[in-house]
Amino acid sequence: MSITFPKTWTSGEKLSASDVQSNMDAMLVKQQKLGASDLDIGNKFYNTNHIVQGEYNAVTNVVSNVSGVFGGQNSGGFYSKSTFITRWQSGINTPTIPQAHYIPYTSFTLDLHRPSNVFFQWWLCCSTETDGDGTQGDGIVFVYLDNPNIKLGIGHRLPEQPNASTADSFLDGTYHSNGFYMQQFSGEQLNYGIGLSGTSTAGRNRIISWGVSIEVFYL
Amino acid sequence: MSIISNSIIKRGDKLTSSQLNAEFTSVNTGFPMNKNNLANESLDLPVFDTNNTSGKSGIILKQMDMYTNGSSATAYANTATTYPFTSGTVIHTETVLYTCEQNDMLRIYWNLSLQTFGDSSTYPIGSAGDKALCWVFLLEWQLSSGGAWTQVPNQGNVITSLPPTGLYGNNVLLLYGCSLESHVNTYYQSPSPSDVHLYVPKHNNYGQWYYKVPSAQTIYGLRIRCMGLYAPQYVGTNNAIVLLIAPSGSTTHYVTVDKSELGFIQMRDR
After folding, report:
1. B3 and B68 part of one domain
2. Which of A59, A112, A213, B58 has a beta carbon 3.0–4.6 Å from A189's, enabling a disulfide?
3. Are B213 and B143 in contact (CB under 8 A)?
4. CB distance A52–B44 less than 8 Å?
């Protein structure tokens, strides 16, 4: 709706400050109280070009957008970026609760600027040959948030090749694993870690290929 | 584009009533404002109507929830010889209330911690498909409060008749809402007995299902149900999984799920 000006001058009329002020005030009122009819609401005002461009980190393969933070990493193929869990790090020889450790490469460090919901996924393929210690151990993969020894969700197990097996470890010591974890944050989280950690009672869980992904939603 | 020019009265002009009136009324050419008024503006996170405590504002993400179940459940191999066979075992049930609009995107995931058990001699070990025996974990939902549980779209019932064979199971093209779990690793190793059956220690299963909701609907429940044992077989003109029938009363072959997680994501299509 257009502005209705209170004053319309006629020829020869004396120009008064109050009349000018009245018309100026009419504009002021409109400017401060726009209605739907003042806007072309039948057509979109914005398209994706109006959204502030995201920031892409080519090293971590993570992009930070207005809508959230998204990214992923993978091993790139068999043996090109393998990782591991081992009982030698888990402290299994001291019969207490095994210490979980980061699984190298499989973590993200995030700066989350708003309340958000986080969805983390992974897959991996692991080969665990017998370590000859007389027991069939296993590796257990967890999701951690900020502290690798906080073991969240179901432990995903990677069994060791049976001790008595005469087959190759690729036959009965190789397993795949997939999993996910969801987390809600009610405030800002800076320099925040999320990824995979693990404990093991096997000599070496060789994670020969793997992938992790992160989806953080702000909106 | 809506532009206010303020160009009618120029410095040095004699001020006339018509110019003065025109200068004010020309402001109305600025209405209605349209997209061109905002062409050079940019939108950053603070201008969006975000949620104060979560990322579930509804602009992109509507719902994201993760449910954990620590109760153990065991499913035994089917021994019934006729339809509808052994009904299977419910592994995980959640009562929910999700209101979905047309074109909402649903993403459902599940993690299971499980172990399979059996031997090297009891049928269906020795069947034609015993190299690939598997359990089926079906995703099912409830679309009315307290109503019937049904398989999710693109997931068929796995006790469907597969003519002309008299077998039951379903076409692999209707297995989008389930995950399969190998019952036993079977491999050849000479000398005789040549087949070795290796039951894997406790391990995990993972499944996922995606769906674009075609029309508004409400989800009242989600669950995972396990049935088995199945084997792959070419039936009629399709690849299928076929339900096998273990000996009457047999509890030799089974799977125990000791923990499960179910994740639900609902997103706007655009």
Report:
1. no
2. A112
3. no
4. yes
